[in-house]
Design a protein that fits this description.
By secondary structure, this protein is mainly alpha-helical. Helix content is 75%, strand content 0%. α1 crosses α4. The two termini are 44 Å apart. 27% of the residues are buried.
Length: 259
């Protein structure tokens, strides 16, 4: 986080180099998107053509799909039980890094440049929404609803008797599966906020005509799908957080399989 605090201001530093892309020098969200939209046309066409050319696939029976999904679910729950502590530690460290980065970026951008309401909204959303990460990690360990389970004992039995012993209690297995999926969704949310940050940084650097213009142009195009609308960005980020909460807290498990 401290390292990023040094890097971010350097990225926002003015440079006389002239990249290929020219936009207005005001950091106005809508104007930057209008100026850059023409660069997306060829990329979208190419992606559509690629997806249309890869439609042929081998047929798979319904039974094979169900068995495959069950094996994946068993491995997912087993991995979640075995590495829950390590996963939580890594995610907490990532949370600290991201929060420091978001704060540093917001401070540097708002202090040095005129930033419109849309860009401020994305920066503020990242700062506030990311604070939910440690809360959700706490709920993984202490869910507010659902099954009361001894995860260490379940893991011990699975290691002794094999992972199929996890299916001995379907309700507990379902609860653990929901928690594992909730953690995956939470990781997805954290990646989503990084995408939003990179989109904002690309807009700022393209506007100020910085070094590595081609790189920032590429980042802008790749992140435009999530950053094109501020309302969509905030809605989708909030949706991921709420969905993760429903999974890890035990609420969804109780709604689907009430005791």
């Amino acid at each position: 986080g401290a390292l990023f605090g040094v890097i971010i201001p350097k990225l926002l530093k003015d440079k006389n180099e002239m990249p290929e892309i020219h936009v207005d020098k005001q950091l106005v969200f809508s104007q930057i998107h209008i100026e850059q939209k023409q660069y997306m046309v060829n990329t979208v066409r190419y992606q559509k053509e690629s997806s249309n050319s890869t439609n042929n696939s081998q047929s798979t029976s319904g039974g094979e799909i169900i068995i495959g999904c069950m094996i994946v679910a068993l491995l997912l729950v087993f991995g979640f039980l075995k590495y829950e502590k390590q996963i939580s530690t890594i995610m907490l460290c990532t949370f600290v890094f991201l929060e420091t980065t978001f704060l540093t970026t917001a401070y540097a951008a708002v202090k040095k440049y005129y930033v419109d309401k849309s860009i401020k909204s994305i920066l503020l959303f990242n700062i506030l929404a990311t604070m939910g990460v440690p809360i959700l990690l706490y709920l993984v360990k202490y869910p507010i609803m659902g099954q009361v389970v001894n995860k260490q004992e379940i893991l011990r039995q699975a290691e002794m008797s094999g992972i199929f012993s996890l299916l001995s209690d379907v309700d507990i297995f379902g609860f653990l599966l929901y928690q594992a999926l909730g953690v995956i969704i939470l990781v997805g949310f954290m990646i989503f906020t990084v995408i939003g940050l990179m989109h904002v940084l690309s807009m700022i650097n393209l506007t100020l005509k910085k070094r590595f213009g081609k790189m920032w142009s590429w980042i802008f195009r790749k992140t435009l799908g999530f950053g094109q609308s501020v309302a969509f960005y905030m809605f989708f980020g909030s949706f991921l957080l709420v969905l993760s909460f429903l999974f890890v807290s035990g609420v969804l498990s109780m709604l689907i399989t009430p005791i």
